[in-house]
Fold MFS transporter, SP family, sugar:H+ symporter.
Amino acid sequence: MSVDQTRGRSTDHLAHVVMIAGAAALGGFLFGYDTSVINGAVGAIQENFGVGAALTGVTVAAALLGSALGAAIAGGIADRIGRTRVMQVAAVLFIISAIGSALPFTVWDLAWWRIVGGVAVGIASMIGPAYIAEVAPAAYRGRLGSLQQLAIVLGIAVSQLVNYALASSAGGSASAQLGPLDTWQWMLAVEAVPALIYLVLASVIPESPRFLVRAGRFDQARGVLQRIESEDADTKIQEIRDALGGERKTRLSDLRGKFGVLPIVWVGMAIAALQQFVGINVIFYYSSTLWQSVGVEESNSLLLSLFTSIVNIVGTIVAIALVDKIGRKPLLVVGSLGMSIALALTGWAFSYANVVDGETTLPFEWGALALVSASAFVFFFAASWGVVMWVLLGEMFPSRIRAAALALGTATNWIANWLVTVTFPSMQAWNLPVTYFIYAAFALLSLFFVVRYLKETKGRSLEEMGTS
């Protein structure tokens, strides 16, 4: 075979992998959409059901408990029925949740349907990185794995664009009537459309060759590998079999080590928790109400939330461009340092807020600093931890424990997410500047943790992970 033919074949393989990885990443789009769409509806939900800040926090965070559950069970299910089947299950749950959330009778009904959607989010957040890592060539795995995060931030942006468009159509308020439903109900219902597309795509993409080898379906694995890998399929199948160490399915007990779980699992769990403890989702879950608290009108606060999502997308594109060039660890170090400074500045700006009769206002110059520093925080997060955490969780574990370890790491991420989300309304009411200083401290802690404990994974095959 000539050099040109080899190059052409390699290009064809990469194009095929990009397409199926993009289809799998649609679960990330729904992940971002579902977790952010509630942002534009928070005020309307409080008004409609007559609930306070604490119960609102519980309702918003209810989805995150479902996400932790979904992530925890996804690995075991994926090892039994396959990666693509699990994607289909998640898609169906997204559809059910979207319809149920749009038609609640009480705030408790809404919380329940948010939990169902959360289970779908947890499953999608685990299976997307796992599937993409298992089909991606090592040289492109970082960039292809980054598609998950790009899809997440696009989902966040689209949800905020939809929220803004719907609110504008109803006169600028999420509480207003729009046809047979309130505007906030339409915000939650629209998610059923991309969920249906996800269900169709998950039904046509090929199964992971590593799952097929584990299941003993070697002919199917060979067929998939011939479409996604440029090297000999039989050689690759043997490498996968050797790395798996047998055909026994992974169990959580396989993660046990001297200190509860294996050291590599502790590192993955810590990375997953620290990604949330910097407070990133406060920006996306509560940004519209946060800006309203400093005097921004509801319609403009939704627009500011959309601006934040654009910053998030730009940062994610930067990370995709750099993750396979400079590596995972340098990106995390720069991101942690940038987030620490940006969060400290945000806390400093909000320390100049004035509170009169429960209404919070910021002088113009400090409001401008808060907007710039919060946007810088989002950029540094998106250009580092937003992308790299998901790439690492998909690739850092040895093949024999990957599904179970990834499930545990993803569940840890969602539990940390829940803790931050459910505590923020009370912390905001207690002392907003100090809340941001606490998040800055966690960002600084993440810097020291990465430097001390994280090993670089750039350019290594999945079968090499855990060998040194």
In short: The chain has two domains: 8-205, 253-467. Residues 253-467 form a domain with the Growth Hormone; Chain: A; fold (CATH 1.20.1250.20).
